[in-house]
C-alpha cells in the first residue's frame, strides 16, 4: 500500500514476481494478480501493475546494462501532475 496526499485515496497493489535467467540476461517481471488472502479494501484504491520489471544484460565481467519498465494503472481519479510527480519518485 502507498500513501497519497490528501484529498486523494491511498492505493495498494498485489503483484506476482517471476524471474528468468538465460544467456547473460536476467529478467524480473511483476504483474498484478488477485489473491484470496488480500482482497480489495474499502479504504484503498486497488492499482494495477500491467507489466513492471527489470532486464539485466551482462556487458562484461564487471558491468551490465539495466532496463526498467513500469506500466501501472493507478486507477481512480488522479490529476496528471500527481501521476507525473509520483513517477519521478516511485519508479526509480
Automatic annotation (TrEMBL):
PROSITE patterns: START. Residues 1-92 form the START domain. Gene3D superfamilies: 3.30.530.20. One of its GO terms (cellular component) is cytoplasm. It comes from the Eukaryota. GO terms for molecular function: lipid binding. This is STA10 protein. It comes from Crypturellus undulatus.
Amino acid at each position: 500500500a502507498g500513501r497519497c496526499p490528501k484529498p486523494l485515496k491511498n492505493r495498494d497493489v498485489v503483484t506476482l514476481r517471476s524471474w528468468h535467467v538465460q544467456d547473460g540476461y536476467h529478467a524480473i517481471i511483476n504483474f498484478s494478480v488477485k489473491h484470496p488472502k488480500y482482497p480489495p479494501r474499502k479504504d484503498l484504491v486497488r492499482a494495477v501493475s500491467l507489466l513492471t520489471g527489470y532486464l539485466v544484460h551482462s556487458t562484461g565481467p564487471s558491468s551490465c546494462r539495466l532496463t526498467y519498465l513500469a506500466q501501472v494503472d493507478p486507477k481512480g481519479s488522479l490529476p496528471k501532475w500527481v501521476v507525473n510527480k509520483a513517477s519521478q519518485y516511485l519508479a526509480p
